[in-house]
Amino acid sequence: MRRIESRLNTRSEEFCSRAQHNRRLAADLKELQRRTRDERPQRDVDRLRRQSKKPVRERIALLLDPGTPFLELSTLAANMAYDGEVPGAGIVSGIGIVSGREVIIHADDASVKGGAWYPLSVKKIVRTLDIAIENRLPVVHLCDSAGGFLPAQADLFADRYLAGRIFRNQAILSKLGVPQVAIVLGHCTAGGAYVPALSEYSVIVKGTGAIFLGGPPLVKAATGEEVTVDDLGGARVHTSISGTADYPADNEDHAIAIAREIVGQLRQAEKWPLDWATPEAPYYDPNELYGVIPTDIKQQFDMREVIARTVDGSRFHEYQPAYGATLICGFARVWGYKVGILANNGVIFNDSALKGAHFMQLCDQTRVPMLFLQNITGYMVGREYEHRGITKDGAKMIMAVSGAEVPKITVICNGSFGAGNYGMSGRAFDPRFLFMWPQSQISVMGGEQAANVLADIKVRQLARSGQTLSAAEIVGIREPIQEEYRRLSSAYYSTSQLWDDGILDPVDTRNALGMAISATLNAPIGQPHYGVFRM
Amino acid sequence: MRHSFTIADRDHAVWLARAGAAYRLHVGGRSMSVSLEPAADGAGVLQFDGARHDVVMARDGDVTHLHIDGEAFAVRYTDPVRRHAGSSADAAEDVALAPMPGTVVAVNVQPGERVAAGQTLVVIESMKLETSIKAWREGSVAAVHVAKGDPFERSAPLVTLAPEARAR
User: Fold this and answer.
1) Contact B31 A62 (CB under 8 A)
2) What superfamily in CATH does domain A42-264 come from?
3) What percent of chain B is helix, strand and coil (3-state, nearest 5)?
4) Which domain holds residue B115?
5) Looking at this predicted complex, what is its ipTM?
6) Mutating which of B32, B79, B81, B137 best tests the A interface, going by the most A Cβ atoms within 10 A?
7) Residue B112: pLDDT band by 50, 70, 90 thresholds?
8) Is A243 exposed, middle or buried (0-12, 13-18, 19+ CB in 10 A)?
9) Looking at chain B, which residue has its C-alpha nearest residue A235?
């Protein structure tokens, strides 16, 4: 494959100002991640120490094979919810290597509200198990949760994708033959009690671990029976009397050592035999990505410069280079794995939409995973384009992206607006993983345009009641709308709501993709078949 | 979680990680490339960061006897599950419970007596089978809950050992 010829001038003023701007955004991201991971109120830290419990990240570090990478997912979940008081939604999730096997980890963080599950905690656990199902990844649960956060119970309990889905997903994993190991390091109360019960293997720590549907206070209230935690659902009870848990452990280290031994005897996954070559670092330095991304989302940039700083050897076989030029399609390798790339280079016209739908079928037919690099303002509008069938051409992309059997991975590099989000494998189209860059924006239409529309409606309403507004008053109406729109379309809001699997520092994208692609290959890939394309 | 080896009573936590076609050894905060070219009769050449050492090795279960640069070492591997077992705060650990209903045939110890691990405490009979209840650790007998000839149900306490602070 040929190397992309970069046209980037790394000495230009534009490059330097962009680099400075984006490096600052990356530093802000890292700082917020650090606070989310490590900063906890002293009383919570002290309480864990009193209970001789380790912080969740120490537990994960002990569980993983030393020196191997850990792809943490949705680190900043809930960063804009619950007044910022539930860092990471109280859950740590990610993909790592345990005893030589790729696994996904779900870990309750007892330093956050005693590990109580908030609505977004439930969403994060369900997403973790969805990833396990889609990619056939064994799961290790580190259980230490006080149960659902009662004041928010209406938002976490009954609906299809709420708490019950955690247990439904566990049962489906078991049915698919994907094993789960639970380590009970604290209390598993109420629904949380089902997590170890539905795992094929469960380890429970004597003294601190306990499993029960109702804790001692609830039992006392319900039946008057007085019983201690240990006698109700401690390690001895469950490993020697009830059979709810399998292995008693003397302490946390012992429990984690047992879990590592269990994972070590699981069958090694037979991976999908994807075309692979010895990896090669990109020829162009990924650090130059900071100078590629514009400071203003309205400025256009060449997505080939992003591809050149992400793929092996900066090599790219471009498909249909002269047709539908606003959608770049072609083949490349990431950490040796062959991928088909679809990358936006402007608004999608009829020809770019046809090219996209065609290339997706080509990837599916040749069994090559697809990588979507989004920077999309939408499909072209207007009389001419409607007459040419822009809507039915967009529908072809949606038909192709929804029906494709090969794994899809999406990175929102800059803008993700309107129907462009759909055709380019947005969250609703089941990409196996979806990541965002820190400055990117996601909304049904551009923030500025939307704010103008909303402000105009308001101005007209006031005009009807006979009021005229000065220019300053119109700005006074528009500004707050725009500000709120900016907030709700930011990458941080998206990741807070788990519309994605995490925000990436652009230079980390290549590594994240390597681990993500590797994870997808644990699942079999079905034969290509589609719905009806409107021609 | 790293592997644990003991050399001359000192514990060492190490990890061997794949690095391309070769391996890296992680010890403390350091890591180094490492390789072993085996030759006949347990001899071989061990390389750390390119420095070559002639070695002779003999394995005996979890212990490897190693002769390197004119010195001999015994390197003992401790399985991580075994290494971390042993310290918990569970009082139930101190009581022998009846594994099945039956009667007491013999009581061999008295409260206050020191017992060694594996020593028979009481003998029970159940379903035409005699079973010796043995001390699961060293300790002193705190209480004997049954007398010769007593019947008992499943999970009845038989003997309690005095709780002891156990070293990790």
Assistant:
1) no
2) 2-enoyl-CoA Hydratase; Chain A, domain 1 (3.90.226.10)
3) 5, 60, 35
4) 91-161
5) 0.72
6) B81
7) very high
8) exposed
9) B90
